[in-house]
Amino acid sequence: xxxxxxxxADEVAxxxxxxxxxxxxxxxxxxxxxxxxxxxxxxxxxxxxxDYVMTGVIQPEGGRWTRSASAARARDAGS
Length: 79
Known about the structure:
- The protein is an alpha+beta fold.
- The chain is 35% helix and 25% strand.
- The protein is built from 3 helices and 2 strands; from the N terminus they run H-H-H-E-E.
- It has helices at 2-17, 27-30, 41-48, and strands spanning 52-61, 64-73.
- Strands 1-2 form a two-stranded antiparallel sheet.
- It starts with a helix and ends in a 6-residue tail after the last strand.
- The model has no long low-confidence stretch (mean pLDDT 79).
């Protein structure tokens, strides 16, 4: 499952990187947070020097896989 999560994260980052005016931090820096449920978004944003942090979940549900993703503004995440 880690491979699927990593591949999806790379795909999302690649797509967002093509949006004019967006800067995407390296996956190697963000990988330190992979698989950590409940990671502190504000702290992660600060350490990565990022305005927004993407979070997501991939999990089996019945015979299918479900996924969700969201972007949180790092400075507002703790409020």
